[in-house]
Amino acid sequence: DYLEDKVDWAKSMNKHGMFDSFEFVKLEAGPEEESEEDENVGFIEFSVTLRAKANDELYLEDHDGAITPGSETKMTERSKFIRNNSTGVWSYASGDVRSGVGGLEDLSLN
Hints:
By secondary structure, this protein is mainly beta. Helices cover 7% and strands 40% of the residues. Strands 1, 2, 3, 4 and 5 form a five-stranded antiparallel beta sheet that branches.
């Protein structure tokens, strides 16, 4: 959930050490898409690639899609933005987060 205070927001997302187990590799943003039903609604798909750090606590059982040190995984979010009619300012509204980890490909993670 978004918080105005960006430091508190990052801390709330990292409460279980989410950011400690991975190194950031790259972030890609897809093209802007305008909603066909409403010109004040738009979408952008973001893709982040993360590399698992060498950390004994991160090891998962060895199976297809397992996260092992050095392996990379990709997560995507199709983000929805809404434009304020009065100001023209776009604001983040919601997103659908998905992972490339084996077994999670078809699940929304949020």
